[in-house]
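#struct-pred

JT: dropping the chains for the assembly here, can someone run the whole complex?
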Amino acid sequence: MRGSAMLFARTLRPALFALEPETAHRLVVGLIRAFPWFLPACRSVAGPRVPPDPALAVRVGSLLFPCPLGISAGLDKNGEIAGVLSRLGTGFVEVGSVCRDPNAGHPRPRLFRLPKDRSLLVHYGNPSRGAAAVARRLAAQRFRAPVGVSLVPGSGSTADDTEGAVAELAGAARLLAQFADYFVLNTSCPNVSDVGWEGGKAPVATLRAWVEAVSRESLGRPLFLKVPPVAEPRAIEAILRMAEEFPALLGFAFNLPRQRPAGLRTPAAAIEGLPGALAGPPTAPVFEAALAAWRARTKGTRVHLFGGGGVVSAADAYRRIRLGASLVPVCTALVFQGPGLPAALNRDLSGLLRRDGFKSVSEAVGVDVDGSLSPGVARA
Ligand SMILES: Cc1cc2nc3c(=O)[nH]c(=O)nc-3n(C[C@H](O)[C@H](O)[C@H](O)COP(=O)(O)O)c2cc1C
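RK: done, full complex below.
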């Protein structure tokens, strides 16, 4: 374990894990806001700042990411600490998910730790201070890496209220467009009502309406859709046909599956009756299968894939890149391994690329899937 990870595991983590999970999360955000120099200082104590390896830079449309490992939505829901997070050697920071209007989300408790599985059960239900508040906060910060803003309709407007959802998303995009390098539309939050993904189907008409509305309001900002980790060819192909209509729609990310994976180390009795979707390493096979299935259909197109979900090491991240990911977001692993993680993974990734003779990340994207007739999940 590296210096900063060891320090985190021995000191901060036990103190934070003694608190109720959401209380700990709020405390961390509050402390970072109060002492914005603290995390970047820890990073420099842990080791000298290494200039980013140019081989790690990733271009996605008009966006240039300094490195592929970044932070996904959920950690900075209200855009309070994205500036600090962007100074930790991260390739990008995703803020949100943000609703247009303030939204309470589900009642607490709505976040649970499963330490034996290094996982979390997430049942937030999209709490948000609202797009105007997030815009004010983003306006007051500076960033060292691209900042994406994840948008979601409030919990009231879902499957049966497409018009309400469209109006909310458009309103949020209008308020935030100046402050976002790109937008991600969260089309599949696993703990609010489904917009039509059930049964492996793709709610193409709803997605089209959402993308249309946000594209009109987003000042041409690149757009990504966060979809469930579906691997059904017909669903993927229908979404990709729809994507061709929108030049600003550059790619896809994957949200947590609604079903919990089998084979957890945590005894079933400990989580029986607890709500929420599971996030963490046990979900990795589902994300890898989805990523490979999407790559098999997007190779050679302008579509890029975010390959997160259960990533805890540079080897995991490298495997995702080889399965088709241009960018690799992490979320749960930061809670268990601390804020030095993205920088450490980016550094170790350089070594893995060099070991295998790749001169850049983009050379490695998809090599384990491209050319195979039926994409499997190959090991790097
Ligand atoms: C505490 C928590 C909150 C999350 N909140 C959001 C959210 O608001 N919007 C979203 O699109 N994804 C959210 N996610 C999903 C993550 O962005 C990520 O896609 C997912 O957790 C898989 O990555 P991981 O295994 O690295 O956590 C959340 C995840 C966690 C653990």
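JT: nice. The chain has one domain: 51-364. Confidence is low (pLDDT under 50) at residues 373-380.
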